[in-house]
Amino acid sequence: MAGTVVFDLDGTLADTSADLIAAANACFAARGIDVALDPVADALTAFHGGRAMLRAGYGRMGSGMLLPPGAEDEDFPRLLSHYGENIAVHTKLYPGVEETLDRLQADGHILAVCTNKPGALAEALLDALGVRGRFASMIAADTLPVRKPDPRPYHAAVERAGGRVASSFLVGDTETDRKTATAAGVKVALVSFGPEGEGISRLAPDALIAHFEELPELARLWLG
Ligand SMILES: O=C(O)COP(=O)(O)O
Ligand SMILES: [Mg+2]
């Protein structure tokens, strides 16, 4: 019996860190803040989203610099707009993603995306990477009034894809994904090829995957 495999986007399907960081750095430059996040060292922060990157940058400002009130709320839309215009300059699918999606579909599984990226950006990115058509549904940060780790976006991703939550699991990369799966009552596989490496096992995922090639076997085990 086939089931539904739900994927997180940033840090799971695609390494978006360099383009996300470039967008944050453009905001710091526009403000005259002499701070730049590093695409490799700060990748973990990038996978926690735009606001996390802005806060990290502000936190590294010299003590002589003052941030005006509301700076983050002003910079966030600026970051999103810069990012939207440069969404797939450096971004790539992780190794084996396309072959694995092929395999999962050939095994009869339904594929879905549940991301905390704004919907327009998530659509644009999946299109640019040539994989939008693989996913029967895509629930983003602004599709519903709530986002991950609330379980509702996950449930909606499975249901809108035509699947059943009881026969589904999540593939993700952060604590948000771990919490989402727990709240949704499903298993989670966390990837260990991200910036935290095998350290991500601290979140006690039901499985740790070092490569996408491991997923079809896991799907057979968990979904039948
Ligand atoms: O953009 C974010 O906040 C994270 O996006 P993700 O849920 O696809 O990892
Ligand atoms: Mg992620």
TrEMBL record:
Coiled coil: none annotated. It comes from the Bacteria. Gene3D superfamilies: HAD superfamily/HAD-like (3.40.50.1000), Putative phosphatase, domain 2 (1.10.150.240). It catalyses: 2-phosphoglycolate + H2O = glycolate + phosphate. One of its GO terms (molecular function) is hydrolase activity. It is an enzyme of class 3 (hydrolase). Its EC number is 3.1.3.18. Pathway: Organic acid metabolism; glycolate biosynthesis; glycolate from 2-phosphoglycolate: step 1/1. Keywords: Hydrolase. Belongs to the HAD-like hydrolase superfamily. CbbY/CbbZ/Gph/YieH family. This is phosphoglycolate phosphatase.
